[in-house]
Amino acid sequence: MIEHDEGLEVPSGRSASGQLVSAEPGDLPIVFSHVSLVAGPVAILDDLSLTIASGPPTVLLGPNGSGKTSLLHLAMGLIPPSRGSITWGSRPIEQARRLAIVFQRPVMLRRSVAANVLYALRASGNAAQGGREVEAILERVGLLGFEDRPARRLSGGEQQRLALARALATDPQVLFLDEPTASLDPAATRTVEEIIRSIAGSGVKIVMATHDLGQARRLAGDVALLARGRIMEHASAESLFANPQSPEAAAFLRGDLLV
Questions:
Q1: Which of 122, 211, 213, 254 has the most neighbouring CB atoms within 10 Å?
Q2: Could you please report the per-residue DSSP string of 32-76?
Q3: Rounded CA separation 176/207 (Å)
Q4: What are phi and psi of 181, to 5 degrees?
């Protein structure tokens, strides 16, 4: 695993082929069993059980401070749970093979766009074809032609697309996204969402945290609603939005504040 730098995509494991492939059943489902995360007297996550299966994107929905980011960090193995267990396809999380996460505010390396992607390819052992692989990945995120531009001079939306490109370079089976469009304007948000749909359509399992109801409606296959560090409801997007079963889900859909 690459050393963790907050904001830089973190891959785990490597692919033998270096090709972008779909999620394999062996690494799914991700099972959280009675997981708690405690910091001093504060329970960030409290006795949380959740199963994330293969298929369309799973969206973690809820207000800021509900525990969505912490759940993603636990799933990536960046932090251990205080209590409970997490498994990947019935294996310990340490044996999960190809995971990647894109943080809400990704760090751009002081290099060109192409060099950022090549760094991710090399770090995960997927740089067999070098420049051709970089071009193919940049084309997927709409950045072909930007190869020589300094990454830190890109717009916010372009930087988020580059962050997705670096994550794709690690050949993930499961890709975690933490509020990927939180600071973007509507046009940039639409572009990033189109890329997310394309990645999901290729078979990569997307697990995305957002507080944006509209985004959850547009992208989710299933939704886990979090509040106060707990899963209040987990259902298909169609079911949850049409007929929420928990008071918290009904309140959140009405636009009420969950405290």
A1: 211
A2: EEEEEEEETTEEEEEEEEEEE-SSSPEEEE--TTSSHHHHHHHHH
A3: 5
A4: -125, 20
Reduced to 3 states (helix: H, G, I; strand: E, B; else coil), residue 191 is helix
Place of tokens 């267990």: 85
For the entire predicted model, the pTM comes to 0.88
Q: Are 177 and 102 in contact (CB under 8 A)?
A: yes
- What CA–CA distance (Å, rounded) separates 81 from 5? 20
Q: Which residue has the higher pLDDT, 125 or 252?
A: 252
Domain ranges of the chain: 25-254
Selection from 96, 133, 121 nearest residue 207 by Cα:
96
Amino acid at 146: F
Q: Which positions ≥6 away from 139 have C-beta within 8 Å? A: none
State which H helix or E strand residue 48 sits in: strand 42-52
Instruction: Kindly report, residue by residue over 90-122, the tens digit of the pLDDT.
Output: 777 777 668 899 998 889 999 999 999 999 999
Choose which CATH entry (2.60.40.180, 3.40.50.300, 3.30.720.10, 3.30.300.30) describes domain 25-254.
Answer: 3.40.50.300
Q: Which residues in 62-112 belong to E strands, given as ranges?
A: 83-88, 91-92, 99-102
- Bridge partners of 7, per DSSP, are none
Give the containing element (helix H, strand E) for 127.
none
**What's CA 101's distance to the chain center, in Å?**
5
First and final CA of the chain: distance in angstroms? 37
- Residue with structure tokens 């199963």? 51
Q: At what angle do helices 131-140 and 156-169 cross, to 10 degrees?
A: 130
Q: Among all chains, which residue has been given the structure tokens 């760094």?
A: 119
Amino acid, single-letter form, for residue 120: A
